[in-house]
Amino acid sequence: MTAHVPTFGGFVAASAAAGRLVVQPRMGFGDPDRMRAGLGRTKAATARTAGTLTVDSYTRVNDLAGALAAVREGTGLNGYPIATHSPDTTREVLDGLYGADFPVQVRHGSARPDAIIRALAAAGLDATEGGPVSYCLPYGRTPLRDSVAAWERACELLAEGARPGAVPHLESFGGCLLGQLCPPGLLVAMSVLECVFFARHGLRSVSLSYAQQTDAVQDEEALRALHRLAGEFLPAGVDHHVVLYTYMGVFPHTERGATRLLEASARLAIRSGAGRLIVKTAAEAHRIPTVEENVRALETAAAAAALAGPPEPLAADPDGEVYQEARTLVETVLGLHPDLSRALNEAFARGLLDVPFCLHPDNAGRSLGFIDPGGRLRWARTGAMPIRADPAAGAAPLTSSGLIAALWHVAGRYDLPGDDDAPGEDEGGGRRERPVVAPLTV
Amino acid sequence: MKILLSGTASDSHTWNLVFLRLFLEEQGHEVVGLGPCVDAELLAAGCLGHRPDMVVLSSVNGHGYRDGLAAVRRLRAEPALAGLPVVLGGKLGIAGHRQETEVTALTEAGCDAVLGEDLDALRGFLAARARREVPA
Fold first, then answer.
1. Domains of chain B, start order
2. Smallest Cβ distance to B22: which of A76, A400, A440?
3. A8-308 has which CATH code?
4. Is some CB atom of chain B closer than 8 A to the CB atom of A141?
5. Per-residue pLDDT at A5
6. Given an 8 Å threshold on Cβ–Cβ distance, is A77 in contact with B26?
7. Chain B, nearest residue to A441 by Cα
């Protein structure tokens, strides 16, 4: 490792100042040698890259015995078991790669991240992602109250455990939630609220995420709202940037469609001033991608970003629906209680925040999103949230084929022949029903 | 039929569960959903509590084989659940293709069907079970 302590936020800021978008894979392998090879190839890619250690599912749910058993059995894991491999092993994985010119972020999905935070700090790392809501509600059964408490400790551990000179970085996963079919106002609000939470618990460098949704103009509006609300609600002196995720839902099945969607996300990132892009690969619809496929995705995104030129004048309304919705939600939650932990718990208990399609018992489950005829993601129902739904849209009951059509909306459009950001019409091929038991892997 | 629908222990995916609930209800079944990250103990307790006619396990995170095997073994170890039909669908491993040895091991452990991602196969399996329920 280099003597100079790398700072994740500083690397992204310097890249942005140089006009370079930082691109980053989601990559994790159980085997240390393979993980090291993946990081090495990420660093060597023709792109401005940050490295990723994605943690496996057993570690994510704190089944450390399960992770250890899988390693001993030689079962392929879907990520790097950072709390099972020793700190020395992880240091060897990073040795000579991790440094000021190649920051590495640990990505996981844990509602109780103590073990992961301790393990990453022990290995000399200090950048990760998550959040009390975004790593709890969508994906597991940990009570929200427990996740909020665990994330308070996690923030403090991360902030206090850093080496001298380091600036620990925490990214909110709030702009992703279930990955797709959540109208942007709620995604933006969650990113802002979680980053305010991080700042209140000691973090001085954060990033606000947003996952590409169904409509490029609406997405740009959301990303601009995120910038603006970050400026309005984060304390002065907290370093922050915006990170965009290439579409997190059902991915196009054709290589061409997948590549076009990836390129569209890179252009969106440039247009809307995101500092970093988390890419997806053409293999994503089928299985966990290989290192080579990840590198190809990084280079494709970097090339599309480089060709996109400087940010253009605004296509989206900076004071539009997304900003207004998000601001209302953020202000409502912050107004509930001075202690943001209590405010978040109360907001969900009262349905003032309500994630559509989320099965978690602490989520009210009364909201519903839909894709309007113009392709924008909007609210059919808002439950008790202080925002308005489209009254006409809530009438039709949700069916399995309607859900499949919505889940496949973007993939279908990009799999059809057509032009970049505005691919073929949504009728016909885009509405095909596919027989799948597991309709997507996000 | 009353169907208990569940994710597996390490799998936090839910779109599959949201979709399958709608699909099964549209086929005329009553659905009890346990949600994601259901370990073998919780699954067994759910089956003992809800008394379903069938269990549908769905996994997409690449650990379907390992988690599914533990789940089925746990159910079969419970005398009251020894005969409860269990079907597993989704992804068994991280390789993206079906391993027949894994299917065999799951079947030998007591899984009645291992369906991959084929919805028609699930529809067929349910129809066959429903016919068996109605005496000739």
1. 2-133 (3.40.50.280)
2. A400
3. 3.20.20.240
4. yes
5. 65
6. no
7. B60
